[in-house]
Amino acid sequence: MESLRVNSLNHILANLKQYTTCTFNLFFLQEKSQILGKQCVCHNGCCVQEYPCVSVVNLGPSNAGYNESEDIDERKENVRIAVAVGAKQLREVGVTSIDVDSCGDAEAAAEGTTLGLWSYDELKKKSSQKPKIAVNLLDSSELSMKGWQTGVIKGNGQNLARRLMETPANLMTPTKFAEVAKSVLKVATVTVRDKAWAEAQKMGSYLSVTQGTDEPPCFLEISYMTGRPEDKPVVLVGKGITFDSGGICLKPSSGMDKMRADMGGAACTLSTIYTLEQLGVPANVIGLIPLTENLINGKATKPGDVVVAMNGKSIQIDNTDAEGRLVLADALCYAHTLNPQAILDMATLTGAMMVALGSGAAGVYTSSNHIWSLLQKSGGVTGDRVWRMPLWNHYSRQVGDSQLADLNNIGKYGREGGCCTAAAFLREFVTTSEWAHIDIAGVMEAKDEVAYLPKGMAGIDVELFDVLTREISGQLGVQ
Ligand SMILES: [Zn+2]
Q1: Which of 28, 73, 140, 336 lies most in the core, judged by the most C-beta atoms within 10 Å?
Q2: Is 336 exposed, middle or buried (0-12, 13-18, 19+ CB in 10 A)?
Q3: Which keywords does this Swiss-Prot/TrEMBL entry list (predicted)?
Q4: Separation of alpha carbons 246 and 97, rounded Å
């Protein structure tokens, strides 16, 4: 087995000067290329004697820091990017073991490698699967090791969300998702609620979606209560549509396969709690995950049907593809019964969000300046940026104008401001001021724009929510 090393250009050059065999390539990179993530690979021990192959990557400007106009901590982000590029390059040339330089931030370096080397290929034949790479930290100081381990746990947490989202819908039904939750969580308790429970709760909105599929619904309640008993829980609510056909308002077939990831909010909710558990963070967090498919059997909801949610509000369902808000409505009502300190819901809710912000940021709707500032700060540090969207009565009026019921599940002007009317609809089921809705539809899938997130489902926001939950729980400052 070869032993290999990834290093940052800025760091390695100091070491390289002592090796007379050092090649031109390294200095070419330093002098001619200032492109972040630009890398080269040296073979046959040309650079550092103990390693037969070294990947040298440009780490960007040495004075990188928090960039206000970009809303991101570029020092951390550059480390994630550079290390991911180097690690992937070494895998390309067939190495099986990599030692990674911390580049001054072991946690970010660990995130970059753990996320960058991950791939979903378990359903392919062995020879087509990417090789498993052993990755270690080069610097073994206690502080670096601690940061490294934290970064690996966070990366693995996000990779869990990516795996859940990528898994085909026939292999990730509501029942299967519940089984995964039970198998990965060791400290948190997972309660699986069935259809009869939802009926007893009068969750007519959630049940209207579940009635269209033969798969039994599961409403998960995950309790991670390791904080102080007197602290109220933070309640996370994740949309869990394990496949969204659109129902009778059928989606176009092109790209419909991606709707296996319409449980991205559910995946991130589970992964956030999994990450908190793995890190041993003391916090009180409850995850609510309403799971179902949105399909078309003989009992499926018809456009114009009216159902009644848990809080007694009637809803005219004019678009069966706007089902996410229907399952979230009852989950949000139920969240209020748990004496929450704050409620955060995350959902791949609207195509309109994707149109508005693309993959650049998740959209946040909240009336709480406090939660918004925490989200913005956490997003800048973790690289999962967010952008505040309007939660105004202007949009509430558009969903409150229904011919048959109290509310309509789509805005009266159709697609216009669709992500805003969706958020306004959700607000009808919220009474606490400490609530935020995060629409992650646009960031659901990575498109090769970020080096440490190869093309595929992104599982984004896990680290964001990990940091945020801790911040709200008052356990730790943003790190
Ligand atoms: Zn839908």
Answers
A1: 73
A2: middle
A3: Aminopeptidase, Hydrolase, Protease
A4: 45
